[in-house]
Design a protein that fits this description.
By secondary structure, this protein is α+β, with helices and mostly antiparallel strands. The chain folds into two domains: 154 residues, TATA-Binding Protein, CATH 3.30.310; 138 residues, Helix Hairpins. The chain contains five helices and seven strands. Strands 1, 2, 3, 4, 5, 6 and 7 form a seven-stranded antiparallel β-sheet that branches. Helix 4 runs antiparallel to helix 5. The N terminus is likely disordered.
Length: 304
């Protein structure tokens, strides 16, 4: 035996809603469809972006009004007996329905049984009261679909706003990184100035030490006849030469540090260039995301 869903598809073709960002209309069609009591008049609505479980759960709550009856399920059919919906009818109503997904939308098919008769447009022509009931049913189904669609688009908007927030956070981080790189460059430039200043002082000390060494060499030569004094002069000369080598070594270290600082500056400049490219790309993403939010906002405002 074919399922209700297959029978429904074979029996009729659902209407197609034309959806635009400027205006989105939710319409309820009346068709004949198969259900547990055979082929009956049904009110059919398409709910874009909705999910099966959400529609079923909320529809089950929506149709249970002022009654002790519970919503039940038999196969794909969802039904309640004796619900009381005054804006439709002042007496008890039996509602049978089923929900299924087609493409990106949910299809709700609902049957309204009043006084053992499944309501249809033909019934509406019998009296003013029946006409009110007919429009009450259509509005009841349409209001549900509108609410679900608005909720879905509101969630979509919230998700898109979250994306924009994340993108903005990413941009702020890039901007902070850029400031940090600039500070690092300034720090390294100052380190270079400090090193160059220290090298200048050490070069001065080295020159002075060289002069002292030359003088000490002359003194060593002049003390050739006094071995003891000459040995003492030679010892001092060695200490001076050792001190000069130490200064040269320190100068070499400072010069290597300068090379390292310059390399750091070059790397930070590369990072800044890369960062600026990322910022430009991120700004384009943000602009694109703002356009998306504008479209989704327009879509939400256009749901009617």
């Amino acid at each position: 035996m074919k399922t209700l869903r297959n029978l429904f598809v074979l029996t009729f073709v659902l209407f197609v809603s034309i959806i635009s960002h400027a205006q989105i209309n939710i319409e309820v069609d009346e068709l004949e469809a198969n259900m547990s009591k055979g082929l009956q008049p049904a009110f059919v609505v398409e709910i874009p972006q909705a999910e099966d479980d959400v529609v079923i759960k909320t529809w089950s709550k929506y149709i249970r009004v002022d009654t002790k009856s519970k919503v039940r399920n038999e196969g794909e059919e969802i039904f309640i007996l004796g619900t009381n919906i005054e804006k439709i009818h002042k007496g008890p109503i039996n509602i049978y329905s089923y929900v299924f997904k087609k493409d990106s939308t949910e299809k709700l098919v609902a049957f309204f049984e009043i006084d053992s008769v499944f309501f249809s447009k033909d019934e509406a022509s019998n009296s003013i009261e029946n006409e009110k009931t007919y429009h009450g049913i259509k509005n009841f189904v349409r209001d549900f679909a509108l609410g679900k669609y608005r909720e879905a688009v509101a969630l979509e908007l919230k998700a898109e706003q979250k994306k924009l927030k994340d993108l903005t956070h990413d941009l702020e981080k890039l901007e902070k990184d850029n400031v940090s790189y600039q500070k690092e460059i300034k720090g390294k430039e100052q380190d270079i100035l400090n090193a160059e200043s220290e090298i200048g002082s050490m070069e001065t000390a080295k020159t002075r030490m060289s002069e002292e060494i030359e003088n000490q060499k002359l003194k060593v030569s002049s003390l050739s006849e006094d071995v003891v004094l000459q040995d003492m002069a030679k010892k001092k000369l060695k200490e001076q030469e050792k001190g000069k080598k130490g200064i040269s070594k320190d100068i070499g270290k400072k010069q290597k540090n300068i090379v390292s600082y310059q390399s750091n500056i070059k790397e930070f400049n590369r990072l800044i260039e890369d960062n600026q490219e990322k910022q430009e790309a991120k700004l384009k993403e943000i602009e694109g995301q703002e356009d998306v939010i504008e479209k989704v906002t327009s879509k939400l405002q256009g749901i009617k």
